[in-house]
Write a structure and sequence with these properties.
four-stranded antiparallel β-sheet, about 140 residues, 6 helices, rbstp2171
Length: about 140
């Protein structure tokens, strides 16, 4: 029997959405959008906290858009090959920062949803309780 650590390490708990179409960017192409692991979301939240702390400085709106572009660059895959569209995240940020804010924001929100970051802690606990097997107390 595998240890709990190994079970956690090998768990396939990152959700994804197939058949995402972005006709404005690539007519007929299908994308796969993955949720992100907790470390990427924590880094994003830390950047947001730092931005709020430095709120008086100019350029905050562009920085926020770049942060969303970073998340999208990390979660957008070619569905056919299951490879990142932007293996170089910096290049992805540069490209996505110049694309439609509505499309980037929509992909960001999908990634956030797939990462369960749109749920509050209480909802996550209720979901986990619903997934526990018999014999759990």
């Amino acid at each position: 029997m595998a240890s709990l650590k190994d079970l956690i390490r090998n768990a396939e708990d990152i959700k994804y959405q197939d058949d995402v179409e972005i006709p404005e960017w690539a007519p007929g192409a299908l994308f796969r959008v993955y949720g992100l692991p907790s470390g990427d979301w924590e880094a994003y939240q830390n950047k947001l906290s730092k931005m709020r702390f430095e709120q008086g400085k100019s350029g905050g709106e562009m920085t926020l858009r770049s942060n969303k572009a970073e998340i999208v660059a990390k979660c957008l895959y070619d569905q056919e090959t299951d490879e990142l569209v932007f293996p170089d995240v910096r290049e992805g940020i540069a490209i996505l920062s110049k694309r439609s804010g509505g499309i980037v924001n929509g992909l960001f929100n999908l990634c956030k949803f797939l990462s369960d970051e749109d749920k509050d802690f209480q909802q996550k606990v209720r979901d986990a309780e619903g997934n526990s097997g018999d014999g759990q107390s």
